[in-house]
Structures are given as structure tokens and as C-alpha cells.
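Duplicate of #3305? Posting structure anyway:
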């Protein structure tokens, strides 16, 4: 039950815990409980020779136990750390469950990490055993181990690790794929009872994993997540969203499992009875969606932006841009009407608008659904802000797009919209067992089941992260409405203060401009400057169809960044964003760069969050140029 305390503004809201767990519970028990409910039901699906093959709970648990035996046979003791460096795939979850069954602590590592980054994680976490996806990642780990001067065992998910030997992983520990290691575990001397003793030695208060922040600023800190964090979030989120997750539902996981959001949802799926499949790359995503046919999706806003852009490009290619625009408008209007009614407002759409929406619902919206496999009814968006009209579009088209909010330190979901309680533009209400408070300066504070235990080996940072009442300081700015829905306006550290003393939150302006398919990234600047400006990058995938739809020749982004038609389009987007703020907050100048911001360039995290300071540092000359001339009048 939600209990907002309201004076002039709402400052506190909380949702009661639905499910309590005994102290001797652990996250691995979610899987054991699922097995007890029926071993024949599929817990995962894997692609074999182009076809999806179900993996029953019984088969999966048997593989987990075999791998746990191999770990225990290697000398792993309860509490020892084991790193996992891989893209999102079936074996990732298998390895983590095996670590937990062996009583260990998992340490996720992004597969794109450099030897320097891996060295830091190995140093800080103490991990001396690593699961690496393939020989390439094993080589990165070996390089990090050499630099650190330690002995590290590396097992690969596929192929034979060529890096075993002096100075690298311990000789004899390279396995020809994970299956061989599972078989070796079952054939070894470790008994089932030893695995069960190690598994049940872990309690709610024990560390389950150390998750290193993606490092948008400074050196990554290890967030200590307990078994209580994952298990309580899963046990409470599932009954909180029964329409989304439950027996018979399916999802395709493509976010990095090294990111806490994907893992939290995967463990919810284990508890709920959902079947989880994985896709390893962007090139496979659309084909895997069509063939696996998930009932719900988990993604970051950029994925939904690209889905919408792809649908528009397809319509343009068939000469039906006007039809798509009309269908988009009808969907947005229908969703806005629904949102207004949910807020208790009286509203009435014109009969013609209702009729148009019904026509599009039968003729055009199903094509969008088919691109997602045809059976997806819900989608959850997290990790960064979602443009409200994008959510309205998908919901009006029949895909209920639910925005949530959380951080690594809150085991991801701290608040979420649900099918029965949604306010588009908000990030929802607290999940069960969670309290949200707004500090006097607008910072969002969180306490509850998902809040982490602290930063690994960093007591000073841990103390600074909590206030006197035990609430975690998120660093985000937000507000609560009278019904308990949270809205996020931006990061405290990102708040710009112009030379004139005006406080500007860049997030809403950036979201508005980035809603265009032509734009890839936007960074609003102006700290200590006389006015607000922005630097933008173009979406290379959407540039060609955008140019073709306007009868313009194909050209590279470097040329398009200077083309009058492109600049005019960007100006119209900036004008639209400016219409939502005061003149002092408006973007007065902008520059379009001839290159994009990517993870490889060091400007995006693996979860596609923008590293704002990295952009400001590397684009200093571009930013200075925006202030070198007199700005246009507004």
C-alpha cells in the first residue's frame, strides 16, 4: 500500500513489502524453488542451428550443479569471488548460478573492458577465477593478470583457451567450452551434498555479487549487493507486476548482463516462471525478436527510439510517410487521453480522432508488433530518461511501455510504472519494500529492499552515500506527485549554472531534441557561460533514409553535419525543445559534430549512458566555438 505524506508538496512515499523471506534464504533458492514447482518447464531457450530450443529447469539446474562441483573441486570456498567477462548469453547466467551454488560471489565485467579496467576489478575484488566468453576475452584477462602479477584461472565459454601457461591463467584450467567443465564437475569427486552445503551456507545478509559502476566519472566503485537485494526485489516485484511476468511469459534479454538491471530482471524471471532467451548482438536483435516472439521486453530508451525510427524509415521507403505520421499522432493522442483520465481529469477525444485510432489499430499498428515478434504486450524502459511522446506512441499502438527508475546501488528497479498504475513522463511509484524521499534541495533519496550494502573496501564513500536516516543519496533530482509517482529531472552534478546564475537541467532539453531519428546524441552545455548551447551528433543508420525521404543525395555524416537541410531540421528540433523552457534556459546555439559518441570512443558506458564529462573534455574546442560569436537574439 502506498502512503504519501502530503503538505504543500509530497516529500515521502513508500510501498509496503509484499513478501518477506527467511534469513537463511539466498538468491540461488529462487532457482531451487522453481525446480520444486516443476522441473519440466523451460527456464531458458537457446538458439541451436537457427532454431530456439527450450532448456528445462531440471536440465539447467543439473548443469549449474555440475559447474559448481568443478568450482569447488578447484578450491573455491564460500565467499570467494569469481569474475564473469562475456556478452549477454545463456552461459552467463549458468556461470553466475554455479558461483552461487558453490557459495561464491560473482563479479561481472563488461566484455568491452580493457586490460587496465580488468586489472582494477581483479585487484579490488580479489577475484582469482574468471569465466571469459572466448579466447579474445581470456587474452584480456591474461594481460590484466600479468600486469597485476597474480595467478588467475580462466575458463572460456567456447573454444580452447590459448592463454593457459606461465604468466597467464593457471596451467590445466583452460577448458574446451563450458560444457566440458560441467561434465568434469559431474565426473569429479565433489558430492552433491558438498554443493548443497556450500549453497545453503549463504544467507540474505551475505554478499551475492560485487557490481562495478560503469564509471561515468572517476574509477569504478564496487557496489556490494547482498542476496537480500536480489531475492527480495524478485520476490516482491513479480507479484507487483503479474500481468508482465509469470508462468508462460517469455522475454529476450539483450541488455548487458554485467549491468545490474538485466540481472535483476533475469532473476525476477526465474522466480516468476518466465522463459528467458538471449541475443548477443545488435545485428541479431530484430531476427531474434521475430523468431522467439517474446511477450515482454526490457530495453533502454535508445532501443525504442531506433524501433520507432526504423518504422518511419520503412514507411518513407514505401511512400507512406504521411500515413505513418497520422498513425503516430493518433496513437499519441489516444495514450494522452488515457493518461489524463488516469490522473482524474475530464477529457474527450473528438469522434474523428477515435475513429482514426481504431482504423490504425487494425491496419498499421500490428506491423509494429510484428517487428517485435507479434506477441509483446509490455516493454520496460530503464537506465536513462524516456521521452514522454515515445512512450505515448508505443502505448497508443498497443505496446504498454513502462518506464522505471533505479541505479546500480538500488539493484536497479526502485520505482516503476505498472500496467494498472501508469503516469507517462514519470518513472512510477516505489516497488514493494521501498521508500522514496525528496530532500530539501530536490535530491531523490531511497531506502528499501534493493539498496546495496555499501562500496567494496571504501567505507568513506559508503558513509557519504547515506543520510542520517539511512536513505541512499541517488544524486538525481526529482519530485513526487500527490499520488506517489516520481519524476526525474536530471542529475545534481549535471545541473548547469549559467554566468547569469540561472539553473538549467539539461536532461529534458536533451530528451526532446534526441526524440528525432536524425539525432544520435545531444549534450547541453552552459556551465559558467553566458547562455545555454548544445552539441549534437547524427544517427548514421537513419541519415540515409532521412536524406532520401527529402530527395537529397546520400552523404557521409561529415558532410551532412554542414548541410543546410540538416541544420534547418536540427534548428526546428531545438526550437521545439526551447518552447518547453524559459528564455534563459533555451538553447541559443548548437553545433553538429561530424562524428558520433560511442562506447569505443569513450563517450558511452556499456549500458549506453552518456559520459557527459568525457564529452565536455574531448569536445572543448567545439564548445568554445559556440561562445566565440554573439548569439542570435531570442
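Output from current build:
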Amino acid at each position: 500500500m502506498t502512503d504519501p505524506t502530503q503538505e504543500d508538496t509530497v516529500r515521502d512515499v513508500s510501498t509496503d513489502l509484499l513478501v518477506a523471506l527467511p534469513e537463511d534464504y539466498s538468491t540461488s533458492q529462487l532457482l531451487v524453488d522453481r525446480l520444486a514447482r516443476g522441473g519440466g518447464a523451460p527456464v531458458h531457450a537457446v538458439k541451436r542451428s537457427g532454431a530456439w530450443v527450450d532448456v528445462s529447469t531440471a536440465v539447467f539446474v543439473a548443469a549449474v550443479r555440475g559447474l559448481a562441483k568443478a568450482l569447488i573441486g578447484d578450491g573455491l570456498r564460500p565467499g570467494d569471488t569469481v569474475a564473469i567477462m562475456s556478452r549477454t548469453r545463456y552461459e552467463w547466467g549458468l556461470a553466475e548460478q554455479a558461483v552461487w551454488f558453490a557459495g561464491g560471489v560473482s563479479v561481472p565485467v563488461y566484455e568491452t573492458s580493457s586490460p587496465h579496467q580488468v586489472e582494477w576489478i581483479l585487484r579490488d575484488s580479489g577475484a582469482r577465477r574468471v569465466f571469459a566468453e572466448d579466447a579474445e576475452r581470456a587474452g584480456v584477462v591474461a594481460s590484466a593478470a600479468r600486469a597485476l602479477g597474480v595467478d588467475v584461472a580462466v575458463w572460456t565459454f567456447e573454444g580452447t583457451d590459448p592463454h593457459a601457461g606461465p604468466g597467464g591463467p593457471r596451467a590445466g584450467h583452460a577448458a574446451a567450452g563450458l560444457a566440458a567443465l560441467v561434465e568434469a564437475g559431474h565426473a569429479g569427486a565433489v558430492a552433491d551434498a558438498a554443493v548443497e552445503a556450500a549453497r545453503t551456507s549463504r544467507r540474505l545478509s551475505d554478499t551475492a555479487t560485487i557490481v562495478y559502476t560503469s564509471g561515468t566519472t572517476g574509477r569504478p566503485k564496487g557496489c556490494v549487493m547482498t542476496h537480500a537485494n536480489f531475492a527480495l526485489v524478485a520476490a516482491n516485484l513479480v507479484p507487483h507486476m503479474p500481468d508482465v511476468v509469470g508462468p508462460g511469459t517469455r522475454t529476450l534479454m539483450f541488455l548487458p548482463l554485467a549491468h545490474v538491471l538485466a540481472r535483476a530482471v533475469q532473476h525476477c524471471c526465474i522466480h516468476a516462471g518466465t522463459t528467458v532467451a538471449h541475443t548477443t548482438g545488435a545485428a541479431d536483435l530484430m531476427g531474434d525478436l521475430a523468431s522467439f516472439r517474446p511477450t515482454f521486453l526490457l530495453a533502454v530508451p535508445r532501443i525504442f527510439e531506433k524501433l520507432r525510427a526504423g518504422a518511419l524509415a520503412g514507411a518513407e521507403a514505401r511512400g507512406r510517410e504521411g500515413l505513418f505520421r497520422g498513425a503516430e499522432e493518433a496513437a499519441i493522442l489516444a495514450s494522452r487521453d488515457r493518461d489524463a483520465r488516469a490522473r482524474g481529469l475530464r477529457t474527450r477525444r473528438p469522434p474523428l480522432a477515435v475513429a482514426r485510432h481504431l482504423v490504425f489499430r487494425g491496419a498499421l499498428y500490428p506491423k509494429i508488433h510484428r517487428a517485435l515478434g507479434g506477441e509483446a504486450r509490455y516493454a520496460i524502459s530503464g537506465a536513462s530518461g524516456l521521452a514522454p511522446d515515445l512512450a505515448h506512441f508505443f502505448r497508443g499502438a498497443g505496446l504498454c511501455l513502462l518506464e522505471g527508475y533505479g541505479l546500480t546501488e538500488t539493484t536497479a528497479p526502485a520505482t516503476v510504472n505498472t500496467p494498472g498504475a501508469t503516469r507517462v513522463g514519470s518513472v512510477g511509484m516505489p516497488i514493494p519494500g521501498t521508500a522514496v524521499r525528496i530532500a530539501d534541495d530536490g535530491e531523490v533519496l531511497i531506502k528499501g529492499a534493493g539498496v546495496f550494502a555499501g562500496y567494496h573496501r571504501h567505507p568513506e564513500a559508503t558513509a557519504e552515500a547515506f543520510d542520517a536516516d539511512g536513505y541512499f543519496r541517488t544524486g538525481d533530482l526529482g519530485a513526487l506527485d500527490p499520488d506517489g509517482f516520481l519524476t526525474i529531472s536530471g542529475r545534481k552534478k549535471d545541473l548547469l549554472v549559467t554566468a547569469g546564475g540561472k539553473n538549467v537541467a539539461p536532461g529534458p532539453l536533451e530528451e526532446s531534441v534526441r526524440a528525432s531519428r536524425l539525432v544520435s546524441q545531444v549534450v547541453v552545455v552552459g556551465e559558467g557561460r553566458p547562455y545555454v548551447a548544445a552539441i549534437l551528433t547524427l544517427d548514421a543508420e537513419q541519415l540515409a533514409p532521412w536524406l532520401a525521404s527529402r530527395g537529397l543525395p546520400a552523404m557521409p555524416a561529415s558532410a551532412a553535419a554542414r548541410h543546410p537541410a540538416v541544420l534547418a531540421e536540427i534548428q526546428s528540433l531545438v526550437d521545439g525543445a526551447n518552447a518547453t523552457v524559459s528564455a534563459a534556459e533555451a538553447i541559443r546555439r548548437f553545433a553538429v559534430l561530424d562524428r558520433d559518441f560511442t562506447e569505443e570512443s569513450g563517450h558511452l558506458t556499456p549500458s549506453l549512458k552518456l559520459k557527459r564529462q568525457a564529452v565536455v573534455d574531448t569536445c572543448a574546442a567545439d564548445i568554445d566555438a559556440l561562445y566565440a560569436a554573439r548569439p542570435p537574439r531570442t
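Confirmed duplicate; merging threads. Confidence is low (pLDDT under 50) at residues 160-176. The two ends are 48 Å apart (CA to CA).
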